[in-house]
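Board notes, transcribed. Complex of a protein with FE2/S2 (inorganic) cluster.
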Amino acid sequence: MTTTPDPSPKPSAFVSRRQFIQLGLYSLGAAWLGTWLQSRWFPSASTTQEAVPVSFPLAELPVGGTRAVTYGGVSVLVLRTPESLRAFSLVCTHLGCTVQWQADKKEFYCPCHDGRFDEFGDVLAGPPPIPLEQFPVTVEGETVIVGEI
Ligand code: FES
């Protein structure tokens, strides 16, 4: 008794190289689409949304002092010098750690990677690529207003 070989290829338990590459491309596409949709539907907190101006009495911020406020969901520090009032985000522009104001040095310090910013928010040292985000400050009468009015 003789058997004839089956001319059709046997199904493999493994996927072919082509199927594997297609599966990888589909996975990448799905991951990209998911990320894009998430950013559209659930944008991260930013100062552009729900950024309601914050106000407080000028008397509560003496010359040389600071005042912490929250503007647009971001922690902000208002600095008062003899010359001006300035408001900066306390979010480090490197990887988002919270910077600390060091009054004795007149610097913002980021403890995560030793980033330093001067009293104008400009980068002094470390890995931060850009200055701290600055917000408008207005004085109307005896009231300080942080944010766009
Ligand atoms: S997160 Fe601030 S220096 Fe890296």
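Confidence is low (pLDDT under 50) at residues 43-48. The pocket of FE2/S2 (inorganic) cluster is lined by residues 92, 94-95, 97, 110, 112-113, 115, 126-128 (CB under 6 Å).
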